[in-house]
Specification:
This protein is mostly helical. The chain is built from three helices and no strands.
């Protein structure tokens, strides 16, 4: 069993615990991870370009 110690009344979200648990909930093949990373980057760049056009 994993034990997590938080400082004071720090919420789980701020500590990054929930995101880490969700990230490691299942295995993602390296090729799929690479594809997702590339898609996320493309989406980020496209939204930046849309912001510049305004």
């Amino acid at each position: 069993m994993v034990q997590v110690t938080l400082r004071g009344n720090e919420p789980l979200e701020k500590a990054g615990i929930l995101t880490d648990v969700k990230k490691n909930a299942y295995y993602v093949k390296p090729s799929v991870e690479k594809r997702l990373k590339r898609a996320k980057s493309t989406k980020r760049v496209a939204s930046g370009m849309r912001r510049q056009d305004r």
